Each structure stands twice: as C-alpha cells, then as structure tokens.
Amino acid sequence: MAVFCDTALRLRLIATAQELAAPDLLVRGGRVWNVYTGEIAPADIAICGDRIAKVGSWTGPLAEATQLVEADGHVAVPGYVEPHTHPWPFANPLSLGEMAVSRGTTCLVYDQLMLNLAMGPDRFLELAQAISRASLPHVFWVARTASQSRFGNEDKFFGAAAIRRQFESEFYLGSAEMTRWPDLLDATRASPLLSVLEETRRVGKFNDGHFAGASPRKLAALATTGIRSCHEAITADEALERLRLGLWVLLRNSSLREDLEALLPFLESTTFHDRIAFTTDGAAEPHVDDLGLIDHLIALALEAGVSHNIAYRLATLNPATFLRLDEDLGAVAPGRIANINLLSNLDHPSPKLVICRGQVAARDGHLVVPVPSADFPWTEAYAGSAPDIPEWGEDRFILPASAPNPFPAANLVHAAITREVPVPLAAKGNGQWPSAADAHVLAVADRGGHWITRGIVKNVAAGLEALATTYTTNVGILVLGKSPQAMAQALSRLKRLGGGTVLMTSAGEWAEFSFPMAGIHANGSFAEGARAARAFQSVMRACGYCHSDPKYTLLFLTCDMLPELRATEAGWVRVKTNQILYPAERLTAD
Amino acid sequence: MAVFCDTALRLRLIATAQELAAPDLLVRGGRVWNVYTGEIAPADIAICGDRIAKVGSWTGPLAEATQLVEADGHVAVPGYVEPHTHPWPFANPLSLGEMAVSRGTTCLVYDQLMLNLAMGPDRFLELAQAISRASLPHVFWVARTASQSRFGNEDKFFGAAAIRRQFESEFYLGSAEMTRWPDLLDATRASPLLSVLEETRRVGKFNDGHFAGASPRKLAALATTGIRSCHEAITADEALERLRLGLWVLLRNSSLREDLEALLPFLESTTFHDRIAFTTDGAAEPHVDDLGLIDHLIALALEAGVSHNIAYRLATLNPATFLRLDEDLGAVAPGRIANINLLSNLDHPSPKLVICRGQVAARDGHLVVPVPSADFPWTEAYAGSAPDIPEWGEDRFILPASAPNPFPAANLVHAAITREVPVPLAAKGNGQWPSAADAHVLAVADRGGHWITRGIVKNVAAGLEALATTYTTNVGILVLGKSPQAMAQALSRLKRLGGGTVLMTSAGEWAEFSFPMAGIHANGSFAEGARAARAFQSVMRACGYCHSDPKYTLLFLTCDMLPELRATEAGWVRVKTNQILYPAERLTAD
To answer: Environment class of residue B436 by beta-carbon count within 10 Å: exposed (0-12), middle (13-18) or buried (19+)?
Structure first.
C-alpha cells in the first residue's frame, strides 16, 4: 500500500532536496526527532506540495510564495497515526478527523461496519472514497468480514466478492477486526472466513484481529490463521502473549476500556518494541474533546515512565509500518508526507503547531484551515440512506402470551455486558409484561421492520420511560420501554426525526438526538457532536443510567459476540450456547 | 506480499494448534529464541505441512507418521533471510539456494538482470517462476528497471509493460537495485524511471536502491523518489546517513566488498535496529563454500560484540519485514513457514539442523534431502537461449588506423574499477596495436555480433594471452587478447563451447569453463561450481591477475555505472562525462 505521488511532485522534491528550487513551506530553526535512529538534531524542514523534500539546514533559495514557519527551537515529530478506530454517532468520519488533526493525529483508519450496512456496499464504497479524498487527515478504511449480529444475507455485505470490490480502492488497507473469531477455531469445518483472510493477503492487504477474551490456547490457534494484529489485550500479560505469537500488539485506551495504564508494564518485558502501537479504538466524543486522541496515549505513556523514543515510536512509525504505509507516513524524512507536529519538547505530545499534508493545519489545538466537513455534500452523499422506520402501534410491543415466563432477561452489569436473570411476567392486555421496576421491554427490528425480536433488559435506567434509536450494531432499530404505549410513542418520534436517538424520561420529558447521516452519524462539527454526546449522557444519568457510556449499551444490545443475552434477527439469544431463548417474529414475507 | 497457504492446511494448523490433531513433525526438547520479544524459553515446535502450528509444550497427540526431531536443548532460531543477492556464473539460482539451505539461509531474493536479458522477458518469466516453485529455499525475484550497460531497445526488458507483467507473479517482490540513480537526480526532466518506481508502489511492491558513491546531498534527494533501501553503505557513517533518511539499511558483506566489519559500529549509533538487515549481495562461490552466507555475517557481527538479539534480528525478521514477507517468514511462531535453524547455542549461527518449508533439510552443514537442481529440466528450460556467438577472423580485432593514438586505455586498479591512462599504439598489419606489455585489446559485442566496441585494458594479467566470455553485465561477448590471432582463437573456442569462459595462457595452455545455462550459469552442483570457480581464479592468478576476483573484471568491463572507462553498445566510453572516446562499429543492418 502506498499514498501515491505524481511525477510532477517527485520532480519538485528532487530539485528542492538538492536546493535547486524553493520549497512551498519551510519550517526553520527547529529540531527534528528522527524516528529511525532516535536522534534529535537541529534541522529545517523543506516541504513541496504535501511532501517533505529536505530535512536539514536549508541554504537554498526561497521564493516569494514560500511560507515560513519559525519553529523557534520546537521539536518536530511525525504526525500521529491511529491504526484502528471508529467514529461514534455524535461525530462522523470527517468531523472526528478534524478534531484529530487539531491534536496532532494526522492519519486514521476506520472500520466501515455500520455505514456499509446502512447504505449498502456500492453506495458506501463511493462515499468512503469521497470521504477519504475530502478529509483533512489521511482517512483509510478496513472492511468487515462478518457482522456483529448475524443475519440472513450477510454475503451481500461481507462475502468475498464484496470485499474484493472494496480492496480495489487504495483507501482500503485490509480486513477489519475479526470479531467472529470463534468460527475460525472449528477444526472440523473450514470457516468461509479463512479464504477471505487469505484472499486479503493475496492482494497485499492485511487482516486485523479482535481476540477479546480468547484463552491462550485459542489465541495460539488464531495466530495460525493469517491475522496480523490484536488490540484486545487488557493486561500486560495478554499483550506479551500476543507479541510472542507474532501478532502486532495495538495497546488500546478507549473511552470504553481505559486499559493503557495496565498494559504499559508490558513494554518492559520485551527487548523489541517495533511491533507495538497505540490505538484509541473509537473514543467517545466527550472523551476525545477532553483528553485528545493518540496525543493523550503518548502523554499517559510518558507519565508512566516510558521513554520518549518508545512512546513516540508507538504513535508514528510503528502504526505506519503495521499499516504498510511506512514509505509515506510516520516519519519526518525526505519523501514522506509532510505530517508534522511541533512540540515545545518531547515531554508534551500536544502539538503547538500541526502540519497536515503540507499545510499548517492547527495551532495550539485549534484548526486554522477550512473544515472539509462544512463543505461536504452530506445531503447528496446520504440521499436515499435514511432509515426506513416502521410506524407500529403499542400492540406490537406487548410480549405475547407465548413468551416464556419467567423471562430470561439481560441484566446490564457494564455498559456492554449483560448477565442472564429470570424476570417474572404478569398478564397485560392480550399479552404479558415484566413487573420489575428496573426492567425495560426491548424490541429490535431491522430497517424496514421485516422482523421483530423481543426481550427484557434490567438495570439500564430506572427513570427511563422509553427510548428508540437507529444506532445499533445490527444497523436496525432498538426500542426500550416501560410500557407499550411509551415504546410506540418513541418509535413514532424516531420516525419523525428520520434517524437518531429519542428518549422519554419517567417525568414525560423528551430528548432527541438526530443522526441524519444514514441514522448512524451526526453531520455537524465535532464540537457540536461533543455537546450532544454530553447532553445524551447527562439525560441518561438523570434517568439513573450508572454505567460508563449509554451509547455502548444501545450499540451492543444487538451484538452477538458479547455475553450473555442479545437480540438478533434470529431472536433473543444466549450467545455462549448459540441458543434462541425466544425467537424473532417475521412480520413480512420478504 | 505473502506466501500463500491453502485452506486445507490452515484447518490442520488450527486443529493442531489446539492439540486436537497430531503434527507432521515435532521438534521437541529444545529452546526457542523469540524474534518478537528477544526471549529464549523451552518449547516444542509442532509443524503441519510447511507451516508451524504451535510453539510451546506439546501435550497433544502424535501419529505414527509424526516425525520426531529431538532438539536436545538446542536453540531454534528462524531460517535466515537473504534480501538481495545474485547467483554467480559457477552456481545458478537453484544450486546457490541449496548451498544456502545447508548453512541455514532459507529464503533468497535474486536480481533477474542477466537471465532476463539473456533469455528475453517472456521466456525468463516462465523460468523464474519454475525455479521459485522447484527451489528448496524460498526464491523470490526483483526486476531490474534499467541495464548496467546502456543499449538501444531497453524498453523491451525494462519498460513499464515488461515490469508490470513480472509483477503479476507472486514471486516478484519489487524492482531491483536502482543502479541508474544519477538519472533520477535530473531536476529539469522527469526520468521515466520515476513513474516505474511509483507504479511498483501502486501494486504493493517495493523499490530497492543502490546508491553507491552518492554524496550526502544526492542521497538525500534520492530518498524522495520512493525507493525503500540501500545496500551500498561502506562505512558506519554512510550507513547512519541512510538510516536517518528513512532508507532500510542492508549491511553488505560480499566477496567483492567485505565491509561488514567497518559497518558494524553504526549499530551503536542508533537506538532502533528494526530497519537494518544483512546481505551478501552475491558472494563468490568459493567464498560461500568457505564461509557461508548469512550465517557468516551473523558470526562476524557476534565476533564484533553485537548482541545476540540484534545479530539474529538482522538476519531474520528484519529482512522479512523489509520484503513485506513478515507474515510468513522470519519467525519461529504459529502460522509462519517452518524455516528453523537449530543451533548449539546463539554464539554459533551455523545450524546443527535446518528445517526448510517443514522438512528436515540439512544436518551439520550437509543437505539430507534430494537436491531440486538435479531434477530440474535445465535443457528444456534453456532451449533456444544458447548465446549466438559470431565466428570472426583476426582482422576483426585489430584496432583500425582511425583509432586514437595514444589510446585512452582502462587501467584496472581493482577487480571492478578502472582508471584512464594513455597507451601509445604501434602500426600492426593494416591497423594498430598497443605496445605495452601488460595491455590487452578488448572487444565487446552483443550476442549475434551486430556491433563491436574496441578498447584497451591494462593490468589485467600479464600472462594472459587471450580470454573470451559470455559472462558480461551487458549479456554480450567480451574478448581480451595480446594478439588478434589469439583473440580470434578464443572467440572460436567460446563458440564451440556454446557459452562460458575460455582463456589461453602465454604458455599456450587453454582453460575452459562452460556456462550452459544461457551462457550465464553453470548447471552442476554448487560443489562443482565452487571447484570450477577456484580453478578459474587459480589459472588467472597464475597469469598474473592480482585483484580480488577476476569474475568481477569480466562482468564489469561493460558496466557503464562504474568508473572510469567501459565498453558499451555506444562504444568505448568515459562514464563520468558520458563521452564516447571511441565509437562502436555497426556490423549488420539490424
């Protein structure tokens, strides 16, 4: 993989490197940290177009148009590289990228799961490339090879043909986190995923892993499948175990899992640090707004006593090498893309000035260039992708008399984890309803409402009367409620909103959060998104939500790779045994 | 790039990794050096087919067919990887590979320059792939993008279309050493090579560099061209300079340039050692026979005090990563190809036992498997590629009366380097001839004899009456002689031989060395080749040859990128100024 460079620019680089021509931009009077040798030395940086022509003392010509940046003794380090992340709903792929650049992260790799499902592969592929072309930082994509909530016609989205089409794009680097890894371990039957993984390697791309909770024995077996990495270590021992097996270790600190502190001691147990990188794995908007992205992870590492050389390597050349983009990204060196952070010194990874693709993009944490997301044709890009939300009466939400009683409910013990508990049902209308005060009936449908899966969730938020959202990992519709009436009302409001999240408190107050981008993302600025995310958290907390971030709860109640009970197209399922505890109801023939 | 693995084998690896099935081969009771962490720990190694299924204590089933290797406390390290080499004429791509395996080098990357020119791109591409498929070690190829001796229709061999065809093969990893780098530095005109380099990157392959003698300023400019590496540093400072620029540094120790000792201090001047590897860059057969290949370079590094961890990294995972083959080669880890060297301990890189592609291939430096080169269909592979050698009378070799007098002769000061000296000519027959006792007239022609370039070389070997060879870097015919008669005789003998090197001493004794593979390579075993190479060196020394290896002299007298005078299709040229001192004579219309 490579970021391409046309011959005209190469010729300018060659001339400028020899000081035969003036650069477009000259950063002078600073020092440069060399990512290859670990040295720091005074050097100017001459830039042509989006690439670095020369690093060293500049004695060549300057043109009138040459922009000068006085580095004033600051230290230049490479722009930070985020090898695996997800834009969350209150942001979007462009706005998260803009925020990232302001904090020195100039390259991001996004998982395309949800937008791909929401828009369909063909239209999304067009959009993904348009986003990559418009984006301020480098935006690359990785393609999912399986859903997080099994459904019937997955091949359309995840099959070999669909993957192959995506891989024709230079913006696709490989296959995304292999969440469905248990399938790979079946030694009696080859998972179709195996040939998808090999096909990915055949076209020079890589396979990203996701081996959350895999035992050492399973992990060792997964290391034989052609997967390159794992970002799911949560202890230093797990990280070391992965590295020993030859997996690239992406040390994660996300808003959902702030594991970096626990992981860092691992760095002392290995002689080599070249196959280790940082990742935020999708940090919530307020978290990013408060703390930053990769810059925050570097700061945490430095605070914990990690050396400058290792901390900055894990944020720059290492992830670029992991992504096989190291000929273009991850270094302040001739020929590389001019992504440069100027730091007051290496103790402070938050850049005073950020150069992204050859232009001064941010100073002191604030963007100083036009924001691409403001001009992006969102409306055209997403035309026809608005979620098709059914209008259902309250009868649709009542649990039928045939529902098991007591009902195997999902008790929420963590934003993303449920435990099975029985909940007794009482007769209600022509059906049944849970009597527990902290229980919500859950209904999950696909877009279009062809089927409905019902379940019960406890310990979400006692003061939440009802909630409906289009932000679920199955890219369907999730409704939670204390009564059938409130559920029907919430769904109806969601339909009027056109996609997003609506909720009603037990005091009867409504809050609405619009995700006009295919029902998955907001299309405003990152700052607006962070405000909305805080407002959503705040209202949920006021309703009694006591876990880390309610967004993850909505997202993952449909996720059939997390314990213990989940709602999928098949029904209300016990994940571990793959048992349908209460089947879905088909509502239409198609 | 990847070495592919079929699904059936993946399934066996997955089962065996979980100890649900028996391995084909179990190495037990040894220790394993972990290339990722630098740890050494006791471990068994379970192998299925050509891949490693598990590294760790084996408690699973063994089948009757399971082959057991008792490691008896030996240390397993990955098979060594040679990232850049050339088979020399007394060996060939298969026989050098067989020798390499016996010394623990289980992967070699070959430059295809000479065979490609000798056979033509289409036929050679077929052969290259057949060699890679038949070879005992992994054999990959890199494609030249320019000749080493300019000629008219280079595009057929080096143009974008020719390169593209080669890159469709999984056995081609990229473009070969960019010897014609001065062309890239012309800032006024884009060299067509620039787009070839970018096209290479576009298809996920890499560009290998060769920046011999480039000044710091030129080197810095070359680093902007999309080239990944350089193996031409000859001092520690030059190595550091290359690393700082972001070039992979291949530390060379060849028979022509034994530079490793001078280069090693460089390792102390960098914090990071992940972009450094060893290369032999084509070691002469006797040198390999005496000392080994990559195993020898590791030994030199260890003797110089380099740590085990760095020395073995530079021979294994680092070159595999450079080649982008690190998902398959360079590690003793699950899923990797089973290329394993068992060492008595890490102080002794010469393996006691070599496993190559999953089979025990060598013990104590001796192959214990059938030798693929013995069964290779050389005759069919090379049918029609015998060099077309003209039959010329002695008149062809006399310098015409029009030749400059004094003649700008090439004084050989090193096996590969000449300096210009004037040599007076005396009248002889209907032309002229040098009177100096240590001067040879040189004639170079293409195969087919369409043109002839004449020159004079001094200080080759006073006792050499005549020599003719098809082993030249222009893949033409080179004749040296003290008299026109002897030159004609030598050419005639070369024609009868069908390709190779023939020579006559001043005592009138003839020696012949046959290169039946397209006039470029011997087709015997490596041991036979080493004997022949020694015999050739010995007879040349007896004639007074006083430089390191006469093979390089024959090879490079036609090489227009080495100083100072060379013979090319254009004529007898002064390289630095690109001046034709004495033009070639066209002999036929085509």
So the answer is: middle
Q: Which residue of B has its CA nearest to A266?
A: B37
| A283 confidence band (pLDDT: 50, 70, 90) | confident
Prior bond of B564 cis (ω within 30°): yes
Q: ω before B70 within 30° of 0 (cis)?
A: no
Shortest alpha-carbon distance between residue A110 and chain B (Å): 21
- B406: cis peptide before it, omega within 30°? yes
CA distance B39 to chain A (A): 8
Of A195, A203, A334, the CB nearest to B220: A334
SS3 B313: helix
pTM, two decimals, is 0.97
Evaluate if residue B590 carries a pLDDT over 70: no
Is the confidence at residue A589, as pLDDT, over 90? Answer: no
Q: Are B51 and B336 in contact (CB under 8 A)?
A: yes
**Chain B residues within an 8 Å CB radius of A32:** none
Which residues in chain B have their CB less than 8 angstroms from residue A1's CB? 204
Which of A378-387, A488-497, A510-519 has the least mean pLDDT? A378-387
Q: Which of A20, A201, A223 sits opposite B2 (nearest CB)?
A: A201
Judge whether B460 and B468 are in contact, CB under 8 Å. no
Q: How many CB pairs under 8 A join A and B?
A: 212
Please judge whether A38 and B185 are an interchain contact, meaning their C-beta atoms are less than 8 angstroms apart.
no
pLDDT digits (tens, 9 = 90+) for B330-379: 999 999 999 999 999 999 999 999 999 999 999 999 999 999 999 999 98
Give percent of chain B with pLDDT exceeding 70: 99
> What is the least distance, in Å, from the CA of A316 to any CA of chain B?
13
> Which residues, other chains included, contact A355 with Cβ-Cβ below 8 Å and sequence gap of 6+?
A25, A27, A47, A69, A79, A338, A339, A340, A341, A342, A361
pLDDT band at A383; cut points 50, 70, 90: confident
Nearest to B333 among A51, A226, A245 (CB): A245
Q: The complex's ipTM?
A: 0.96
CB contact under 8 A, A14 and B275: no
Residues of A in contact with B225 (CB under 8 A): 10, 13-14, 335
Output the average pLDDT for chain B: 97
Q: Where are the alpha helices (DSSP H) in B159-229?
A: 160-167, 181-184, 192-202, 216-222
Contact: B18, A187; criterion CB under 8 Å: yes
Question: Locate tokens 């299309």: which residue?
Answer: A523
B387-407 confidence digits (pLDDT tens): 999 999 999 999 999 999 999
CB atoms within 10 A of CB B271: 14
Which residues have CB under 8 Å from A101's CB, separation 6+?
Answer: A136, A137, A354, A356, A361, A362, A367
Non-local CB neighbours of A415 within 8 Å, separated by 6+ positions: A256, A547, A548, A549, A550, A552, A553, A556
Q: Are B341 and B354 in contact (CB under 8 A)?
A: yes
Q: Which helix H or strand E contains B343, and what residues bound it?
A: strand B340-343
Contact B246 A198 (CB under 8 A): no
Give me the helix-helix angle, B526-542 and B93-102, nearest 10°: 100
How many CB atoms within 10 Å of residue B225?
Answer: 25
Q: Which residues of B touch A170 (CB under 8 A)?
A: 202
Nearest chain B Cα to A19, which residue? Answer: B217
B380 burial via Cβ count (<10 Å: 0-12, 13-18, 19+): exposed
- By DSSP bridging, strand B340-343 and strand B75-78 are antiparallel
Closest Cα partner for A478 from A508, A454, A507, A506? A454
Mean pLDDT of A356-379: 96
B31-42 pLDDT, tens digit per residue, is 999 999 999 999
